[in-house]
């Protein structure tokens, strides 16, 4: 094989590897079983962002059993974890179970709340959970980050 043939062979090898890598990252080429475990074919998989508007550190966070980030008091939005499942299509009574821990006065307390999922379109967005004072929890499904001026959810102070 001459030098041109070797270079051409390497060129096609590189093109093939890049093509395979790009297709491996394309979720539309996956079957529904490959997208998530125990999800329906049309479910949306969303990254989890969390914001803490309280004075308590949140040590552990679970969203329908999926682990989310821990969050400093009056902080959050800097750590993205995987993944929350958004059922398709959205309907009025969709709920998500949120469980989290706080440690006021060095005593660990578990909290649990069932929260209505706000309306979202077929594209979904990031699953963003806000912990408000008085153990209130708000869910926002949006592609906008909490620091964006048009973000539809509560703002950190």
Radius of gyration using CA atoms only = 21 Å
CATH architecture type of the largest domain: Sandwich
Total beta strand runs: 9
- Helix percent band: 10-25%
CATH C-level of the largest domain: Mainly Beta
CATH topology of the largest domain: Immunoglobulin-like
Strand composition percent: 35-45%
Q: Low-confidence stretches at least 5 residues in length (pLDDT < 50)? A: 17-39
End-to-end separation: 68 Å
Describe the sheet with the most strands: 5 strands, mixed
Protein architecture, described:
With 157 residues, this protein is of the alpha+beta class. The protein has two domains: 3-30; 39-142, Immunoglobulin-like (Sandwich). It has two helices and nine strands; from the N terminus they run ααβββββββββ. It has helices spanning 3-25, 32-35, and strands at 44-52, 58-63, 66-67, 75-76, 81-86, 95-102, 109-116, 126-132, 136-142. Strands 1, 4, 5, 8 and 9 form a five-stranded mixed beta sheet that branches. It has a four-stranded antiparallel beta sheet with strand order 3-2-6-7, with no helix packed on it. The relative contact order is 0.17. Residues 17-39 have low confidence and may be disordered.
């Amino acid at each position: 094989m001459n030098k041109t043939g070797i270079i051409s062979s390497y060129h096609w090898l590189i093109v093939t590897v890049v093509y395979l890598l790009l297709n491996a990252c394309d979720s539309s080429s996956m079957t529904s079983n490959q997208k998530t475990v125990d999800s329906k074919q049309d479910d949306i998989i969303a990254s989890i962002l969390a914001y803490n508007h309280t004075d308590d550190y949140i040590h552990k966070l679970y969203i329908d059993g999926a682990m989310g980030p821990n969050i400093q008091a009056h902080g959050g939005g800097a750590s993205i974890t995987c993944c929350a499942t958004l059922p398709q299509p959205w309907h009025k009574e969709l709920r998500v179970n949120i469980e989290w821990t706080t440690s006021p006065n060095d005593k660990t307390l578990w909290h649990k709340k069932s929260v209505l999922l706000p309306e979202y379109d077929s594209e979904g967005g990031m699953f963003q959970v806000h912990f408000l004072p008085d153990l209130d929890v708000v869910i926002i499904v949006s592609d906008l980050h909490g620091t964006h001026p048009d973000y539809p959810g509560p703002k950190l102070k």
